[in-house]
Amino acid sequence: MMESYGVKVKKIFLILLEMAKAKVVGATLALSKISPARMVLSMVFLVFFSLPGCARTEVGQEKNKAAETVSSAQSHVQPPETAETAETEIPPALSLETAETETPPEIPLRIGSLKGPTSMGLLVLEAQADSRYEFQMVTAADELLALMVKKDLDIALVPANLAAVLYQRTDGGVRVIDVNTLGVLYMVSADTQIRSPADLARKTIYLTGKGTVPDYVLRYILEQNGLKATDYDLEYKSEPAEVAALLKADPQSIGLLPQPFVTVACAQNDTLSVVLDMNKEWEKVQPDSSLLTGVTIVRGEVLEQREEQVRLFLEEHEASIQEINRDPEKGAVLVTAAGILGDAALAKEAIPKCNLAYLDGEAMEQALRGYLQVLYDQNPEAVGGKLPEEEFYYKKPS
């Protein structure tokens, strides 16, 4: 081993001398300004210290020869990829193409409505709905208000004026999102001489609820037609069924009734008919607004946290109203099943007269603002003491 080492040194030294003779080193040194002798010594020094590697190579030649046999047998194995060429593989469970993120179940919207026309527009949606909605129908508006205040409901279909009352009572905690029912009030009698509100002078009119919306609406229309409170008599009953029963017994009497009680009363006595459509009479004296019955409200925090869900409900509510108006026969089955009316034939006749409608955005605000203004002028407490602010009217983001 030492002999081989000396031989290698001698050979390298002779090669360097030959290079010097050939003036190769001299040319290089001319550029670097280093003496030839010093360069030769430096190169010898570097080669000397590189020789142990050569020695190790010689010592390991036998091992390498043996390794070559193994290496050739494994030549089909691909070399490991470098950081620059390796492709990052996403584990199958996390693959962007195949992984499915589990979405938590959607919290259902809890929806309450009154037994009557405002609930009719929900019935198609309720029949088709899945777990996204929970429906509850009650018989008194006060029940709905209490459920909204206690946060037991997210959305409620309420009389239009009570939406404004609840807005004030909750310090702006509810928003109105649509109008669902226009006016349902009609003057019913067998007296065919009544053709305008002015013809009600010196007459007695039966209606429900002193200090309620029907009372305010009637007084406003009569006043706009030149009648003072002393020009007619109003007699109040506790519920529409009482007025309908009175008209059945005395058809010459005059009663202000909402649908579907109008249809029921006329069916019970064929001498009865609608003598005044209060919607048309309202439009004559208040063309910039509409006579309204029901609106839909939502709790403010629900709208803020689940706006997309509320907007989807609005789309489906509109479709539900359109469908029951389009097919009253199908709607009548739903109305009787819900217990709103007991007779499918009467329900089929009543649905087109209930003025089920859908208004939102600017149209909703215009119709409702003017209506609330009239009620406020009659009695501020009818709308909660003051008119609601602009924020009360929800408009979908454009």
Short description:
The chain has 398 residues and is α/β, with parallel strands linked by helices.
Rg over CA atoms, rounded to whole Å, is 46 Å
Count up the domains: 3
**CATH C-level class of the largest domain:** Alpha Beta
Helix coverage percent: 40-55%
Strand adjacency order, main sheet:
2-1-3-10-4-11
**Major sheet, described briefly?**
6 strands, mixed
Kindly, what is the distance between the CA atoms of the first and last residues, rounded to a whole number of angstroms? 90 Å
- Helices and strands, in N-to-C order? HHHHEHHEHEHEEEHEHEHEHEHHHHEH
Task: Give a count of the beta strands, DSSP E runs of length 2 or more.
Answer: 11
Strand content: 15-25%
Overall average residue pLDDT:
82
Shape field:
globular
Poorly predicted residue ranges? 23-34, 39-99
What does this structure look like?
The protein has helices at 2-21, 24-32, 36-59, 61-73, 117-120, 123-128, 141-149, 160-169, 213-224, 240-249, 261-268, 278-285, 300-305, 307-326, 328-337, 344-350, 361-378; strands spanning 109-114, 133-138, 155-159, 174-182, 185-189, 204-208, 233-237, 254-258, 273-277, 292-299, 356-359. By secondary structure, it is of the alpha/beta class. The protein has three domains: 2-59; 109-183 and 290-392, 3-Layer(aba) Sandwich (D-Maltodextrin-Binding Protein, domain 2), CATH 3.40.190.10; 185-285, Periplasmic binding protein-like II (D-Maltodextrin-Binding Protein, domain 2, 3-Layer(aba) Sandwich). The strands form two sheets. It has a six-stranded mixed β-sheet, sandwiched between helices. Strands 7-6-8-5-9 form a five-stranded mixed β-sheet. The radius of gyration is 46 Å and the shape is globular.
